[in-house]
Write a structure and sequence with these properties.
The structure holds two protein chains of two kinds. Chain A is an all-alpha fold. Chain A has 15 helices and two strands. Classes of the chains: A mainly alpha, B mainly alpha. The interface between A and B is large, with 89 and 86 residues.
Chain lengths: 460, 435
């Protein structure tokens, strides 16, 4: 039985249980003269939940674990048939078998062993599907029968349904924790495996990055080097350029819009600037690579500068543009949170508006602005598409913004895009970079929070 | 008072004061101008970005076609009929027909190399146009028909003026001879400019003039569907729990800190999570909208939770107290009163979160959703790509005509996002209640 059909069966079972529960509790109530504890709908929901929740869990667990079990069984079977094989050969055989059973391979190109294994695999799959369907439906029917015995007039169905709803809500909230745990675990495990082949010090302090691992052992230049310093230098430079653009422009427009602008201008300009935040990063990437970079290159050569067509400058400028609304809206909030009587006090002492802003408002809003800048830096470091499209791939250790540099995120994409062996040091390096990225951005966010909490003035 | 008190009538001092005041006012004006120019710069960049992209996209919305007299030789067409004798399918060497028609237009072209150059005037999609015409009206078999055939991308660029005819031949993608052939067709008024329906009707292709967004649009739609189905219920449930039910304890605190941190995790890290957990561990299919949707759902979850909580918090406590006063249980208060009142805000937050997810590319690159896929995906497990990933792939394509194609893709994406965000604003304006 296919998954779709099974899901439809389960849904119909739920609907049937709901209707049956409602019918049943009405009938039961008619026969006695006691007041019902819960309304009909709670009884019906209770029965529907009895019939579907456990089967649904079984279905999800079975469907997510069966590929693993089937793979293991197939591997054992192949080992019995072919004898000892290396991990790589076994991987190829398993892939072939699966592709053949999915009808993707021409039978003429496949060995008899694989054909045999494929028929074995298909039988396993069929058995798994049938078993799943039988188990799920059986549990559902048992749940229905079991639950319907509870439906009496004084049964506290509402309590049960509410308890269930609360647990559902707790479960949904826990997903957030599970996601974080999933991120940390997946990154940490792969990183540990990466450090089996490359030492931690080489990774963190090495000056050379060229992750070209040979596909065959005898290939020339088979050892890649994984020194991440050039990547950090590149990331830092692009982030710096972005901040040089975004901080003054974002901060000044926030100041102008909250302190000087008429309400009418503010109502037009603020949403317009925020449109910049809604533009997908791939659009910025295209703009940086195909509009700005050629402009900079040609402009540079006109005044005698050599600007690479994948210069850090183009990527940084465009990334700065992307971050302007981020800084301006966060600063706008903190500037507006500074109480009016501070401004009035400064004005009473004879300060001009700009003097009030520079000497009173900005110092009062400083913790919030610093935290906004920190958050913006964390944004810039984690930004991917702009640098993938506009920055370079080669890891140069340079301080010249006209040259091409590469960043952490670019390398993660370059290492992982395309079909690769999941176990090679190259792939694992991407996870190590990802872990570093995660730690750095998390650290910046915690720092930003700390700055606000520690230095914020409480006005009343 | 010090020994040198203020001397009101000191002219030197007064002049100095006036000068200082002038300087301070100058500074004030300068500061104001800085602020103004920052706003202008930000809006100016936006305007420049939009105009440059829209401007480069314009050529992609039209394509030049060549109207050619193609003879459909009846003996060479296989016709498949169903039981009622209706034509279900036609099959023939359409390319041959097209080539014959081209050769007939230029009988002087005889050598094999010249002929090959001549054939290159037309797009590889030209035979399909003939097939479609015959398929639509099988009575045409055996006749000489006028068919509109798409020109190749380079010729199209010449027609649009994007390849300069005045360049020396060696610097030009199109040879003088090809131009001469083209000019003859133009003189015969056989070349026409039409709306490029391929842009929306076709899947991806290596040929710019045949490449379309249909597959990517469908892939985006399926991915967004998965994202919505997962993130909306989970996000609303979690937000209701945290805002309305949760006791103030350690677990709640951890969850709240967690959600705020997740909102700041770079999107590419979510891609790594998807690769390691969904694809490598659970062996879900690569490049599938199912996995893409799941990754994007995890990414959107914090946005939806935060928006929902804000919306729930804005429902005044008196509503809750009134409902409780007439005997509603806590869950009934939430389900019957608080949630319906908060729904506009929740929907707005969800739409904004989904719009963000629709423009996201980086995590989808990690799970293989940027493969070259010609077919339109039909379900959530078939191989697919999404609109931003399609834009990324086209942007990487070296062929000239893909620049306009890419911009056109961006214009489509941005119009979609504009529409969706407009919808969110409409929702907020229409249904938002101020208490």
């Amino acid at each position: 039985m296919t998954l779709n059909f099974l899901v439809i069966c389960l849904i119909s079972l739920g609907v049937y249980s709901f209707l049956f529960g409602r019918y049943r509790i009405r009938k039961v109530t008619q026969q006695v003269s006691v007041k019902q504890h819960s309304r009909d709908v709670y009884h019906a929901t209770f029965l529907a939940a009895c019939a579907t929740i456990v089967p649904l869990i079984v279905l999800i667990v079975w469907s997510s674990l069966s590929p693993l079990v089937l793979n293991g069984l197939l591997e054992v079977q192949l080992q019995n048939m072919v004898g000892a094989a290396t991990v790589g050969e076994m991987g190829v055989l398993i892939a072939q078998t699966k592709a053949f059973s999915a009808g993707l391979l021409n039978p003429a190109f496949v060995s008899d062993d694989v054909k045999q294994a494929a028929s074995y695999y298909e039988s396993l799959q069929a058995a798994s599907d049938t078993g799943r369907a039988l188990l799920v439906l059986a549990i559902g029917l048992v749940g229905l029968a079991f639950g319907s015995r509870f439906l009496t007039v004084r049964f506290t169905a509402r309590h049960w349904v509410e308890r269930l709803a609360t647990w559902l809500m707790i479960g949904a909230s826990v997903i957030a924790i599970l996601t974080t745990i999933g991120i940390v675990l997946s990154l940490v495990f792969e990183t540990i495996r990466f450090f089996d082949s490359v030492s931690v010090t080489e990774f963190l302090f090495g000056l050379h990055w060229s992750p070209q691992i040979a596909i065959r052992a005898d290939q020339a230049g088979s050892s890649g080097s994984f020194g991440a310093i050039p990547l950090f230098a590149g990331t830092l430079m692009i982030t710096l350029i972005a901040m040089v653009v975004a901080v003054p422009v974002g901060l000044m427009s926030a100041i102008y819009l909250s302190e000087y602008a008429t309400p009418r201008l503010r109502n037009i300009a603020k949403p317009t600037i925020e449109v910049l935040a809604g533009i997908p990063t791939v659009v910025y990437g295209f703009f940086a690579a195909l509009v700005l970079a050629p402009l900079l290159r040609d402009g540079g050569s006109d005044i005698g500068l050599t600007v690479s067509s994948e210069s850090a400058l183009a990527a940084g400028l465009v990334m700065g543009t992307m971050i302007i609304p981020f800084i301006s809206s966060l600063s706008d909030d903190v500037i507006n949170a500074v109480p009016q009587n501070l401004r009035d006090g400064a004005a009473a002492l004879g300060a001009t508006r700009s003097e009030t802003i520079i000497q009173v408002v900005l110092p009062a809003a400083l913790p919030g602005i610093v935290s906004a800048v920190l958050l913006a830096i964390s944004r810039a470091i984690g930004e991917t598409m702009i640098v993938v499209m506009a920055a370079g791939v080669a890891a140069n250790l340079t301080a010249n913004p006209f040259e091409s540099v590469t960043t952490v995120t670019v390398q993660i994409v370059m290492l992982l895009v395309g079909d690769q062996e999941f176990d090679s040091a190259k792939t694992l390096a991407a996870f190590a970079l990802g872990l570093l990225l995660f730690i750095i951005t998390l650290g910046l966010n915690i720092l930003a929070l700390y700055v606000v909490n520690k230095y914020r003035e409480q006005y009343d | 008072m010090t020994d040198r008190g203020p001397q009101k009538n000191d002219p030197i001092r007064a002049a100095r004061q006036a000068q200082r005041l002038k300087k301070r006012y100058r500074k004030e004006r300068r500061f104001r101008a800085f602020g103004m120019s920052a706003v202008l710069l930000a809006t100016g960049i936006l305007a420049f970005l939009m105009t440059s992209i829209v401007y480069t996209s314009i050529p992609a919305f039209t394509h030049h076609n060549l109207t050619l007299d193609v003879t459909i030789i009846a003996e060479e067409v296989d016709i498949l009929r169903d039981d009622q004798g209706l034509v279900t399918n036609v099959d023939a060497n359409w390319l041959g027909f097209v080539r014959t028609a081209l050769r007939d237009s230029f009988p002087e072209v005889t050598s094999r190399r010249d002929k090959r150059d001549l054939y290159k005037l037309l797009s590889i999609g030209a035979p399909d146009a003939v097939r479609d015409a015959v398929q639509a009206d099988p009575n045409l078999i055996g006749q000489t028909i006028q068919v509109r055939l798409p020109l190749s991308d380079d010729i199209d660029l010449v027609m649009k003026g994007l390849i300069d005819r005045n360049l020396p031949e060696t610097d030009r993608l199109v040879s003088d001879r090809e131009l001469a052939w083209l000019d003859k067709f133009i003189a015969e008024q056989r070349v026409s400019e039409n709306f490029a329906i391929q842009l929306f009707a076709n899947g991806d292709s290596r040929e710019p003039e045949m490449a379309g967004l249909k597959g990517a649009l469908m892939g985006s739609l399926l991915t967004m569907l998965v994202t919505l189905l997962i993130s909306f219920p989970l996000g609303v449930l979690a937000a209701v729990y945290l805002q309305e039910m949760a006791p103030k304890n350690r677990l709640t605190q951890i969850i709240e800190v967690n959600i705020n941190n997740l909102a700041a995790v770079p999107s590419i890290v979510f891609g790594l999570l998807g690769l390691a957990v969904f694809i490598s561990f659970f062996q879900l299919p690569r490049s599938a909208p199912l996995v893409g949707g799941m990754v994007l759902a995890l990414m959107t979850l914090p946005t939806i939770i935060i928006a929902t909580r804000a919306s729930l918090a804005s429902v005044p406590p008196s509503i809750r107290q009134a409902a409780m006063g007439v005997g509603a249980s806590r869950l009934q208060v939430i389900m019957h009163h608080v949630l319906p009142l908060a729904m506009p805000g929740i929907l707005t937050g969800t739409i904004i979160g989904l719009a963000q997810a629709a423009g996201e590319t980086a995590p989808l690159l990690m799970i293989g959703m940027m493969a070259f896929i010609v077919d339109t995906p039909t379900d959530v497990t078939s191989k697919a790509t999404v609109l931003p990933a399609q834009i990324y792939m086209w942007a990487n394509n070296p062929e000239r005509a893909f620049v306009a194609r890419t911009s056109a893709g961006i214009v489509v994406l941005l119009s979609f996002l504009l529409l969706v965000n407009g919808l969110a604003i409409y929702f907020r304006k229409r249904f938002e209640k101020r208490w």
